[in-house]
Amino acid sequence: MTISLNLNGQTHRVTAEPGTPLLWVIRDELKLTGTKFGCGVAACGACTVHLDGEPVRACQTNIEDVEGAEITTIEGLSSRAAAAVQTAWAELDVVQCGYCQSGQIMSATGLLSENARPTVEDIDEYMNGNACRCATYQRIRAAILRASEIMEA
Questions:
Q1: CA Rg, the chain, in Å?
Q2: 128: domain CATH number?
Q3: Model's pTM, two decimal places?
Q4: CA pair distance 58, 37, nearest whole angstrom
Q5: pLDDT digits 0-9 by tens, 69-96
Q6: In whole angstroms, what is the distance from residue 44 CA to residue 75 CA?
Q7: Burial grade of 138 (CB within 10 A; 0-12, 13-18, 19 or more)
Q8: Is there a single domain that holds both residue 43 and residue 98?
């Protein structure tokens, strides 16, 4: 099947079998490799993208379910919340190995887009399901709080 995707503000015509995960189209067809494959069962968050502004797991989102939707990957992230998150991530040196970080940043941006002043509990609840093998959770939490401060300034 051939469908039209609105990805990072650009329209792409792609051909894929029904049931093909969005992740594979993003990585293999469109060659955007910032969105990572982690587990394939939507449990780790490495493949998080925004679908109409909401974080979703691209490994479990079928290509036929996204036609007409606005899809944003880490490469296209450009909101005020995203800029604050990226600044905070750099300031607090969050990244260790970095593999999960695009998914972490996509989820953190989703959180701050919905709730500009989250509590630690809000952060822990929202970010639950984003796994980090290097266990940088303390730094991630601190960076989200810092990004919230940046957005207030």
A1: 15
A2: 1.10.150.120
A3: 0.95
A4: 9
A5: 999 999 999 999 999 999 999 999 999 9
A6: 20
A7: exposed
A8: no
